Amino acid sequence: MDFDIVIDRRDTESAKWNRYDADILPMWVADMDFSAPEPVIQALHERVAHGIFGYGSVPAGLREAICQHLAERQNWFIDAREISFISGVVTGFTHAIYSFTDPGDSILVQTPVYPPILVAPGATGRVCVQNELILCDDGRYKIDFDDFRTKIASGVKLFILCNPHNPVGRVFTREELMQMAEICLAHDVLICSDEIHSDLVFAGNNHIPIASLSSEIAEYTVTYFAPSKTFNLAGLSTSVYVVKNPKMRDRLSQSMKLLIGHPNILGLHAALAAYRDGGSWLDELLVYLQQNRDYLVEFVTKELPGLKIWAPEGTFLGWLDCRGLSLEEFPHSFFQEKAKVGLNDGESFGQPGIGFVRINFGCPRALLQQGLERMKSVL
């Protein structure tokens, strides 16, 4: 796969590229500008050629392909019967909130965090409790475990973990995950783990599914992931959740009947092709993304005075600290208006994100260079 090819997405109903006027380079939403793996495209051609798109069911071999993928890439060994499907991860953790908590219950999140995770508790009539991550001098974030323990003990019913973490790019270590899980179990708190970026981890780091730590932890955990970020298939609305506990699985299955959240038949076929035959494409992607990450970090450090960045351990998202610019306006507005670059507003990730922007480096390097040069020109 030649990831340097720039593909025009302006007239393809792309949410990423249609948000702004044509003079603005979009580098915001977590949607890569790369073509999907060829086996996925071929599988979709074959399914479309059939011409009938009625209600679907899970293709034979999909659960087994996912099991093999998790075993080989994350050292996580699960039973195919523990796998279920839903349209999206956001739909998934919202589904979990409705299924396992009641209105007025408290839900813990770790800020700054992916906006749908931040707003989900309040949007469902629950209370959002925030465990703010600690920003270290080097730009790396760590968990405030004293605060985490206090908040969990205050009556929290559900903890939404984001790992790899969006937007700060942490891939939590085994020790960090174990400590969080043990605190949750000690207070009978369920864990809802958003692991959608779990395949996109850079050299020197390993993604560890929190449910893989022990059978006891798995009994308290629902894990969500998808081919959407890994293979750039977000528009096909197909995600996966894994539940070991049969009672939890049954409750989710029952409440699923009330939701419009089932994946579509084309998305299921794409997922099968991706997990079964997309491994070499993913290996090449990881190399390219790490090179993009390194280019981004070096450029920001050397060429963008007033900005700071820490090299993310996973995802294809950079978290830029713009507080050193002392701007009178929000930094995302400044770069949009002055540099014609569309970035995510850090404040949408919670109060700790004020003064930050998020940048998507999942794109051909020429586009990354163009965006950074535009930013440089206005500093």
Estimated share of beta-strand residues: 5-15%
What's the CATH class of the largest domain, please? Alpha Beta
Tell me roughly what share of residues is in helical segments.
40-55%
Strand order, sheet with most strands: 2-10-9-8-7-3-4
Cα-atom Rg, whole angstroms? Answer: 20 Å
Order of helices and strands: HEHHEHEHEEEHEHEHEHEHHHEEHEEEH
CATH fold group of the largest domain = Aspartate Aminotransferase, domain 2
Termini separation (Å)?
A: 35 Å
Q: How would the global form be characterised?
A: globular
Notes on the protein architecture:
- This protein is an alpha/beta fold.
- Helix content is 40%, strand content 15%.
- The strands form four sheets. It has a seven-stranded mixed β-sheet with strand order 2-10-9-8-7-3-4, with helices on both faces.
- The chain is globular and about 55 Å long.
- The mean pLDDT is 96.
Put the structure in a nutshell.
By secondary structure, this protein is α/β, with parallel strands linked by helices.
Ordered list of secondary-structure elements with their pairings:
Elements: H1 15-18, E1 25-26, H2 38-50, H3 62-74, E2 83-86, H4 89-100, E3 106-109, H5 115-123, E4 127-130, E5 134-135, E6 141-142, H6 145-153, E7 156-162, H7 174-186, E8 190-194, H8 215-219, E9 221-225, H9 227-230, E10 239-243, H10 246-256, H11 265-277, H12 279-303, E11 308-309, E12 317-321, H13 331-339, E13 341-342, E14 344-345, E15 356-360, H14 365-377
Parallel strand pairs: 1-13, 3-4, 3-7, 7-8, 8-9
Antiparallel strand pairs: 2-10, 5-6, 9-10, 11-12, 12-15, 14-15
Helix pairs in contact: 2-11, 3-11, 4-5, 4-10, 6-7, 12-14
